[in-house]
Amino acid sequence: MTQDLKKTLALTGLTLRVQNLERQLAFYRDLLGLELVQHQGPQTELALPGRHFTLTLQHEPSAPLRPQPTLGLYHFALLLPSRAALAAVFRRLVEARYPHFQGASDHGVSEAIYLADPEGNGIELYRDRPINEWPFRGNRLAMVSERLELEALLAEARAAQGLDPQTTLGHIHLHVRDLDEAQAFFEGLGMKLMQGDYPSARFLAADGYHHHIGINLWARGRTAPPDATGLLAYRMAIRGATPQRLTDPNGALVQVEPL
Fold first, then answer.
1. Rounded distance between C-alpha atoms, residue 216 and residue 218, angstroms
2. How does pLDDT run across 169-179, given as a tens digit for each residue?
3. Whole-angstrom Cα distance, residue 171 to residue 131?
4. Which end of the chain is more exposed for a tag (fewer CB within 10 A), N or C?
5. How many whole angstroms separate alpha carbon 130 and alpha carbon 34?
6. For residue 166, how far is the Cα from the chain centroid?
């Protein structure tokens, strides 16, 4: 895996507990285009040829589906390398008549499409605008949520394709119980508050990025059964870090590795 030498932090993977492995593989592998890397016991590991991140599916057929919204994953976000690459995978989903679209937004810093996998895990597919086009209010980032012109986006696609091999895990957005507690946890991993003026949400990042982690109160403290499907763990590489295993404010495992 190659990394930008200027970066100090990168998200490198996540693990989802899933109830129906074949249905999830039909989505992540057959539709989005991730490739099977390893299957061992209950765990199936998927990645793209660029190997910038891995997705691990932990199969537990008896797991109840996680109610929405509850503390834990709001969405994980896959960053496409270009607008054309975003358009190509969007066209693939449209042509497949994928039923679980949830919306689309222009955030000023990025253009994003929202959907859920077949078990309700939120996913954002997005592309970044150049940093010199990002909106600021004074010296503070000022992301917005405006209408995305989907027809114009589709027109960028020469053909329907799966995820570009250079796609990365751009950010993770979490429902949390307490914003201050969650902010302190991620600041302890070297991130800084990038935007905190959204109602009940904050966005944190390293390296001046718009956000590696989003946190919100929109689940209003509701919890899922401890054995439910959903986010179990995520990994991040931090420059100069000692490998360690932490627990985030929701109880998910955070695996820290050196970048």
1. 6
2. 999 999 999 99
3. 16
4. N
5. 27
6. 15
Nearest C-alpha neighbor of 12 from the set 48, 58, 66, 60 = 48
Neighbours of 109 (CB within 10 A): 25
Calculate mean pLDDT across residues 16-20. 98
Task: Tell whether omega for the bond before 99 is within 30 degrees of 0, i.e. cis.
Answer: no
Alpha-carbon distance of 150 to 51, in angstroms, equals 29
CA–CA separation, 258 vs 56, rounded Å?
20
Only one residue has tokens 């589906």, namely 65
- Quote the tokens at residue 122: 């939120």
Going by the DSSP 8-state scheme, the letter that residue 131 receives in this structure is G
CA distance 17 to 68: 15
Q: pLDDT tens digits, residue range 227-245?
A: 999 999 999 999 999 999 9
Please list the alpha-helical segments (H only) found in 59-214: 83-95, 150-154, 179-187
Measure the CA angle with vertex 226, ends 225 and 232; round to 5°.
125
Instruction: Determine the residue type at 153.
Output: L
Give the three-class secondary structure for 26. helix
In terms of Cβ atoms closer than 10 Å to its own Cβ (0-12, 13-18, 19+), residue 41 is exposed
In the prediction, which pLDDT does 4 show? 58
Q: What is the largest CA-CA distance in the chain?
A: 52
Q: What local confidence, expressed as pLDDT, does residue 5 receive?
A: 52
Q: Which of 207, 174, 210 is nearest to 190 (CA)?
A: 207
Residue (of 211, 258, 259, 255) closest to 56 by Cα position:
255
